[in-house]
Design brief:
With about 375 residues, the chain is mainly β. The protein is built from 1 helix and 28 strands. It has one helix at about 1-20, and strands spanning about 25-30, 35-45, 50-55, 60-65, 75-80, 85-90, 95-105, 110-115, 120-125, 130-135, 150, 155-160, 165-170, 175-185, 190-200, 205-210, 215-220, 225-230, 240-245, 275-280, 285-290, 295-300, 305-315, 320-325, 330-335, 340-345, 355-360, 365-370. The chain has a 4-stranded antiparallel β-sheet, with no helix packed on it. A 4-stranded antiparallel β-sheet has the order 4-5-6-7, with no helix packed on it. It has a 4-stranded antiparallel β-sheet with strand order 8-9-10-11, with no helix packed on it. The N and C termini lie far apart (about 45 Å).
Length: about 375
């Protein structure tokens, strides 16, 4: 009987070993613009530790990145000459990148995204004042030339699609507008109603996020630091709900921001907001501000989407990019003037951030992209 019990116990143990799902493999990619490289990290989902696993040469000033919906490809815009869109295949076991596609770009892009079906790569051009749409082939290669162009006005700074994949929203920093457009089946962009909604004057609408339930869009203004909340209507049009002032301007005595062209020089401490992220459970929203080197967090009301400030935390110097993991437990932040990238634990009850781990980063670390398998 003893031998039988031991044998049965062993079988149970082995069964549990092989039936228990393995922990997710989470990889973090950070574009190091001045080094022309993409740094690859592994994120320990148990404790938030970051480990630098390697670097991929992008052969130019690499900045915005995006992962395809099927998690097979990583794309990046190269903003030095020759302008181009580069793509790599992702090894789902190691996170390693293998060159897969390289396409001439029609403009310099500070922001790229992919539609929900993985058919189109959308790009916003700050310098060109345009948005472009490129077709993505079944192999994952990006076809050139672009198949659609839309005049955005000065300084387009972001472009995203909504959950239905029918609407596109563009932050136009130079016009204080968030553009609202239809994404047609052939990739063409057409205006919804007037084609735009306004934000506060000289706020400089930069990046936007949509709530996971697709009901609200939040935009952060680079120069005013104001978060503008819009309700998304059934036809994709936006209706302004509320403005939330900068959480750090008064505390750090920051003056109103100004547009910063190449060669900009000004010693006045000014608002210089950068990125905005939302947790997958729709409970918390975070924005980064570069002059104060902080991230501010907000609780999201579940009925009307309104925001309540929960706190502000010091992070990497001049934080440019950040991203939340798929499980909503970790926020990863890069700093343009920091030599480390860090992970922060998100308190699921309060939204508080607590530093969890860090790893070396290169020069001008900016865009942060995370993928989990």
């Amino acid at each position: 009987m003893k031998n039988n019990f031991t044998l049965c116990g062993s079988i149970v143990c082995w069964g549990l070993l092989f039936s228990t799902p393995s922990l997710a493999r989470t990889f973090v990619y950070v574009s190091e613009a001045d080094d022309g490289t993409i740094a690859r990290y592994t994120l320990d989902e148990e404790n938030g530790a970051l480990q630098l696993s390697g670097r991929t040469n992008a052969n130019g000033k690499v900045m915005p990145m995006v992962v395809s919906p099927d998690k097979r490809h990583l794309y990046a815009a190269i903003r030095s000459q020759p302008l181009r869109i580069a793509g790599w295949r992702i090894d789902s076991k190691s996170g390693a990148l293998t060159p897969a596609t390289e396409t001439p770009a029609a403009a310099s892009y500070p922001y790229i995204s992919i539609d929900k079906k993985g058919r189109f790569l959308l790009a916003a051009s700050y310098d060109g004042g345009v948005a472009h749409v490129y077709r993505i082939n079944k192999s994952g290669s990006v076809a050139s030339p672009c198949i659609a162009e839309y005049q955005t006005g000065h300084a387009a700074h972001s472009i995203i699609t909504d959950a239905t994949n029918r609407s596109v929203y563009i932050g136009s920093l130079g016009t204080d507008r968030v553009l609202q457009l239809n994404l047609q089946s052939d990739g063409k962009l057409t205006p919804i109603a007037a084609g735009f909604v306004k934000t506060a004057e000289k706020n400089g609408p930069r990046h936007s996020v949509l709530s996971p339930d697709n009901r609200f869009l939040y935009n952060i203004g680079e120069m005013g630091g104001v978060i503008t909340q819009f309700q998304r209507l059934s036809d994709g049009a936006l209706k302004k709900v509320a403005d939330y002032p900068s959480a750090v301007a008064e505390k750090y005595q920051l003056q109103h921001g100004v547009e910063r062209p190449a060669g900009f020089s000004d010693t006045t401490p000014r608002i210089w907001a950068a990125d905005i992220n939302i947790t997958p459970d729709n409970r918390f929203l975070y924005v980064s501000e570069r002059t104060s080197s902080t991230v501010s967090g907000y609780r999201i009301a579940q009925d009307d989407g309104r925001l309540t400030l929960t706190g502000t935390w010091p992070v990497e110097k001049q934080p440019r990019g950040m991203a939340v993991t798929a499980d909503g437990r970790w926020l990863v932040v890069s700093g343009e003037k920091s030599r480390v990238v860090s992970s922060y634990a998100i308190n699921t009850q309060s939204g508080e951030l607590v530093h969890a781990g860090e790893a070396p980063s290169g020069r001008d670390a900016n865009w942060v992209t995370i993928v989990s398998y």
